[in-house]
Design brief:
Radius of gyration: 21 Å
Distance between the termini: 10 Å
Number of helices: 14
Strand content: under 5%
Helix content: 55-70%
Length: 359
């Protein structure tokens, strides 16, 4: 679980007297803008893309062909892009009922999930080929990692023919489960009296956010924790200090060639959230350079990720493309300072960088 930033100086209302526009910011307005401008539409887009992926796989199962498989894989790529944009929101409804782990069980250092997926395929486990019963199984069997293996892993070429209908049925069940999770989270964020209302209305009677500082801390923490996730957990899992130390098969989504695209979407989602929240409007004019630099570097990092799209082993073997990942690492480190020190300081928050519990 991601830990929140610590905050210094007490509630924002206490800080209003210091004369800093950032300290006196309207936390409720910033949060509402973040929710309405990014969180809700991003989750809604995820639900749409999950539905498209489910339909694409159902079409493949109904009329297997290489063209249908290619279309199903294209829909999967769209789903990964939508998920990667919004997975930076690692609190709220997505944390209920193990939804976050059910969407993406990663890293899988001991290949537990891989073995479970392979076992289901080998045994043709019918309970795994039904989205309702699949939802009660191991989290490693029902999310994006499992779906990627079924669509791209060993034996996936059989999906283009009629020799292995079970594999396609399992893929359809996983896609249906992902669509159900996405729809549930989307619905939860859309409720006018749901979690969004808690976040946007901090106060002494609020069980989650007692004051504006805690609400702003949650928002700033999205960026700090998100940057730590993509750099220290995702990127460093496969990018070594030199090419000889690279581990391409340790990368998330390496089978589908979507590693770089996912990293790019992670930073693009952060950029969209940052701009949607209008948190920069609360900065002192002399400090606006912080927001401008954040936007530029998030855009540059997203471009680096997209430039490293494709089979990750090929990316790593190409010096110029591998350099994009090195630059991605530098950009995310710079952004961690901008968010964790510069922006946090403007809001009276201490730079309490979180750990990912050893993951």
């Amino acid at each position: 679980m991601l830990q929140r930033l610590a905050f210094a100086g007490g509630v924002l209302a206490v800080l209003m007297g210091c004369g800093s526009p950032a300290a006196a910011a309207d936390a409720s307005a910033i949060v509402r803008q973040a929710v309405d401008g990014f969180v809700r539409p991003a989750y809604a887009e995820l639900a749409v893309k999950a539905g498209d992926a489910e339909k694409g796989i159902e079409a493949l199962c109904g009329a297997p062909s290489q063209q249908a498989l290619n279309m199903a894989r294209a829909e999967f790529a769209g789903l990964i892009d939508a998920w990667s944009s919004v997975e930076i929101i690692r609190f709220g409804p997505i944390t209920e009922d193990n939804r976050l782990e059910r969407m993406l069980y990663w890293p899988d250092r001991k290949s537990i999930g891989l073995k479970q997926v392979q076992a289901a395929l080998a045994r043709k486990d019918q309970t795994a080929a039904d989205s309702k019963t699949l939802a009660g199984k191991s989290v490693a069997m029902q999310g994006l990692g499992a779906l990627e293996f079924v669509l791209y892993g060993t034996g996936a070429e059989a999906l283009a023919g009629k020799d292995d209908p079970y594999r396609c049925a399992y893929a359809a069940a996983i896609a249906g489960n992902i669509e159900a999770i996405s729809a549930s989270v989307t619905e939860a964020w859309a409720k006018p009296d749901g979690f969004a209302a808690l976040w946007a209305n901090p106060g002494p009677d609020n069980p989650v956010y007692r004051n504006g500082a805690e609400a702003i801390t949650e928002l700033v923490g999205v960026f700090i924790n998100g940057l730590e996730l993509v750099r220290d957990q995702r990127l460093k899992s496969f990018l070594g200090a030199d090419p000889d130390a690279d581990k391409p098969k340790s990368a998330v989504f390496w089978r589908s060639g979507l590693t770089g695209a996912a990293l790019g979407a992670n930073l693009d989602g952060m950029d969209r959230l940052f701009r949607a929240s209008h948190i920069a409007d609360a900065l002192n004019p002399d400090s606006r350079w912080i927001a401008e630099s954040i936007h530029i570097q998030l855009a540059n990092g997203a471009a680096d990720g997209r430039a490293a799209s494709g089979p990750i082993d090929e990316v790593l073997a190409h010096p110029a493309r591998r350099a994009k990942l090195d630059h991605f690492a530098l950009v995310t480190s710079s952004l961690s300072t901008l968010f964790g020190v510069r922006l946090s300081g403007e809001f009276g928050l201490s730079a309490g960088f979180s750990s990912l519990d050893g993951d």
